[in-house]
Amino acid sequence: MPVLIPVLLLLSAQEAAPVVPAMASRQFLEQATEVQRALEAGDFDTARAKAARLPKREFVLQYDDAPVPERRRKAFRAAVEQAVAEWAEAVPEVKIRLGQGTDLVVNFVETLPPPPDGFRPAGAASLFSDALGEPHLEAVLALKREDPPQPVEPNDVRNEIAFAIGAYLGLAESPKGMSVMRRVDTLTSVATGVTALERSIALETLSVSDTLRKAAVDGRRLVASLPKAEVRQSGFEAGPVIQGAVLEWEIEISNQGNAPLRIAALPDCGCFAVQYQQQLEPGQSSLVKVYANTFDVPGPFDKKVILQTNDPDRPEIVCRFVSKVRPIYRLLRMEGTGPVFIGPEGGEADFYLVYQPERKFRLLGEGLAGVKGELTVSPWQGELADGAYGEPVGERFGYKVKVKFDPGQVEGRKSATLTFKTDDPDCPTIFANFSYQSGIAAVPNSLYFGDLARSPRRADFLVSRPGRPFKVTGVRSASAYVEASALPYRDAGDYRVIVEILPGAPAGQFQSEVIVLTDDPAQPEIRVPLSAVVR
Q1: From residue 356, how far is each of 207, 242, 361 by CA, in Å?
Q2: Residue 474 class from Cβ within 10 Å (0-12 exposed, 13-18 middle, 19+ buried)?
Q3: Distance of alpha carbon 282 from alpha carbon 260, whole angstroms
Q4: Which of 159, 243, 247, 434 ranks highest by number of CB atoms within 10 Å?
Q5: Which band of pLDDT confidence, cut at 50, 70 and 90, is reported for residue 456?
Q6: Residues 6+ apart with CB under 8 A from 102
Q7: Residue 149, preceding bond cis, omega within 30 degrees?
Q8: How far is CA 262 from CA 24, 161, 253, in A?
Q9: Angle at 368 between CA 366 and CA 374, to 5 degrees
Q10: Single pTM value for the model
């Protein structure tokens, strides 16, 4: 006993390592834990070597655009600089220099295979390494993504570079929102941004890194701060409910470690409300209460709440919630969900407004907007499938709505709305949208590129007539500064037309059009106007 008392007193007097925030990445948690364990053991050589790989406030981003087509390098380089500038503005404490180094290296390849849990080609891959001389983080960006492969745009590059910077700083990928750490493998025109929360997490990971590096250099022993998350149940299932019901669940979480457990609950759906305690002290337990409002999510309900923690062994706990939300009403057609076709002489279509037997409602009025035609409504009972919800043929109850369309509808694809007044207090007015089409349609029927100083110079549109095959025999443009080409799109008999405005277009308001040639004598040409602002 006399020997143990001084040892215990010595251990209790030791300084604890800094606590890592929730929403830090698995890689950062693992690296920080390795440094903490080495400091606790007094192995300062190992601690210094590993701490050197933690994120720094000043670091180098090496960017290799040799595989990028020459005419796109300038736009891609501007996208990289834009991502760097956004992080510099959001977190002025961070200084990023473009040059040669091993902190963050960005490379390009033609395409990437799908990730282990995906089906479409990956848009980018993040490769971490602790080996000296190798990049700490190598971000590999695909020049083409999706299936069939489509060229990426500068905005995709900007988003991926911004994500890679966040990953270098130790931030975890986010499952929600328009934040910089929310990435997708599809083409996107939406620019992500650094949120206030991401700025806060980046400052915390940098502070932890600074403290651990200094302790390693000073040869100062720290007790490793290791929270440990325990969750009794992470999968929940509820029986079928009617749309509008509120589902409730509870997740019990406890901290079995020696340091505060930090928690961030991130739902993947706006239908969730989550109440929880953001920090649990060692030995403390709490309930995460999850509420789901089902009014806006009819159909199969399979959603997740992700608990991101600072437990290095369980940085992400996925809690899955399953149910089936039976919609109060739905609009069905025998033909499925495609557009209604209207010929020069007009046409007819039958819709079925169906309800749940226990939520029967009475129609008080109906109307049609967006297309000219007449409605005939009558009570109905019969059998129909519902492809939108994956339901086979089954007995349905409701109303049959026959629409007789007037002749002479405008060519192309348009949207229309059926409106119903009901005696149901939850659904007093029902707006049921559908699309109709006359002839071959360009979707969208015009292109606006915006300001080319900030926007991509490439866009696309679909040429479609589902169920009525045709062929595109050629594509031409009305301007020497516009290039266009057509590719078969999937197996639907449609075509994707890719349009690019070339450098050198005259400054000012630029307008032109793309002409798609078809083998249909009734529509030998489909003209799609385009416009942009050239600076």
Answers
A1: 56, 8, 9
A2: exposed
A3: 6
A4: 159
A5: low
A6: 60, 62, 133, 134, 135, 136
A7: no
A8: 10, 28, 11
A9: 90
A10: 0.75
